[in-house]
Write a structure and sequence with these properties.
single chain; 88 residues; alpha+beta; YefM-like fold; three-stranded mixed β-sheet; 55% helix
């Protein structure tokens, strides 16, 4: 997650409106125009969103319980890996 935040870009609403394809790449904080420049929202492109979801999954206790059980058993079936990755 920290890596994602370190790559954060900031874009003004006018920049997003004038050229969204160029402005909205990666993890972008969209801010209002003017003195306050209040945050209006965040944009994640596909890769940034996948990184975010992966980091969230790694932070759950369930994930680490599965890793612990797998390490104790010494083996993981390919079907289990494929299912976890959504390939089947």
């Amino acid at each position: 997650m920290t890596n994602l935040i370190l790559r954060e870009k900031i874009a003004r609403m006018s920049d997003v409106k004038s050229n969204p394809a160029k402005t909205l790449k990666g993890f972008v904080r969209v801010v209002a125009e003017g003195k306050g420049a209040a945050t209006r929202g965040f944009f994640f492109d596909k890769d940034a969103f996948e990184d975010f979801l992966e980091n969230m999954e790694y932070s759950t206790q369930e994930f680490w319980k599965e890793i612990g059980a797998s390490r104790k058993s010494g083996t993981v079936s390919s079907k289990s890996v494929e299912k976890r990755l959504g390939l089947i």
